[in-house]
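Run log // design_07
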């Protein structure tokens, strides 16, 4: 507010200045305190945010009948479409495509062999026709035949240079800021957070600690077989072109049981591939919380669910509505999607 001051002595000017400065500092302090008191600042106020905060407050309150001991505070998160975007294709598929192109000089036969021919000709329509079998061939050809250390270096090098086709930013920028806040909020309340994803475990491990602040040993994912070799005094683990474990659908609760040994009390996903993990969490005798991310924002991200070829949410959405699970409406519940501004 501007005020016209016609006659004002020097002393009054000084006192006004001091008063305004003090008030400004107080307002800034109030603002900082409000921000600190809100564990989910990128979430709009509403039923979804309140449900999360109320749940965490209840199960961490030692006086509550639903108190959960720290050892049982297990939270599991799907990755693709739940912690970062998954459109227009899974980011690991983009990695495999780029690897095919990088390795093509060593494989002249790929010029006429599908699905490699489709990749080299940038024929995504033909690649889609190859289905899961074609994708599996790509993965086996681009993810195996090296050591675990070599593969980690390849993934890191790719992430340092590759850019998303729509946003022209590193793929690790395409993480959901509200979900980063949720992970931190749970961790601050002594929840042990795990990634349980259909994506490759060794594709995720090189970057999850930096991006999500989730330790790499708290990642469960799909994997290929490996073999230990002493290698003349230099022990290595070789990656073999054979599937070992698919961490999707029924594989998710199986993986949780095998690698964690405790049922989660908090589970978050975005597709029908996460439904079995949600049911597993719901079956916990302790008070549980099931959270679905519903992609409803066609402007800031993408809008898709029941008919999507990626991250289809159909049966899961019906069951969530029937059972009263919490469903995030991305368009309505999130103030922002990514840690960066979309106009940057």
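design_07 sequence
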């Amino acid at each position: 507010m501007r005020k016209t001051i016609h006659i004002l002595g020097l002393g009054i000017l000084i006192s006004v200045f001091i008063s305004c400065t003090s008030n400004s500092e107080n307002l800034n302090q109030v603002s900082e305190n409000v921000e600190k008191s809100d564990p989910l600042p990128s979430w709009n106020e509403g039923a979804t945010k309140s449900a999360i905060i109320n749940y965490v407050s209840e199960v961490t309150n030692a006086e509550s009948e639903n108190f959960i001991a720290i050892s049982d505070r297990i939270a599991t998160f799907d990755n693709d479409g739940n912690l970062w975007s998954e459109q227009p294709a899974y980011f690991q598929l983009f990695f495999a495509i780029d690897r095919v192109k990088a390795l093509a000089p060593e494989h002249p036969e790929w010029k006429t062999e599908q699905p490699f021919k489709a990749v080299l000709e940038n024929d995504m329509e033909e690649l889609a026709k190859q289905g899961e079998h074609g994708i599996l061939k790509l993965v086996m050809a681009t993810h195996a035949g090296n050591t675990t250390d070599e593969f980690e270096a390849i993934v890191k090098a790719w992430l340092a240079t590759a850019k998303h086709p729509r946003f022209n930013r590193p793929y690790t920028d395409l993480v959901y800021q509200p979900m980063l806040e949720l992970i931190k909020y749970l961790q601050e309340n002594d929840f042990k957070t795990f990634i349980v994803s259909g994506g490759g475990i060794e594709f995720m491990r090189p970057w999850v600690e930096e991006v999500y602040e989730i330790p790499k040993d708290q990642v469960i994912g799909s994997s290929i077989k490996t073999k230990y070799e002493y290698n003349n005094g230099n022990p290595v683990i070789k990656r073999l072109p054979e599937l070992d474990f698919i961490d999707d659908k029924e594989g998710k609760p199986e993986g949780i049981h095998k690698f964690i040994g405790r049922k989660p009390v908090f589970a978050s996903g975005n597709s029908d591939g996460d439904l079995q993990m949600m049911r597993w969490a719901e079956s916990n005798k302790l008070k549980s919380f099931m959270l679905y991310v519903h992609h409803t924002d066609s402007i800031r991200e993408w809008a898709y669910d029941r008919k999507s070829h990626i991250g289809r949410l159909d049966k899961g959405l019906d069951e969530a509505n029937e059972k009263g699970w919490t469903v995030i409406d991305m368009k309505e519940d999130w103030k922002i999607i990514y840690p960066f501004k979309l106009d940057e």
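The CA atoms of residues 145 and 239 lie 6 Å apart.
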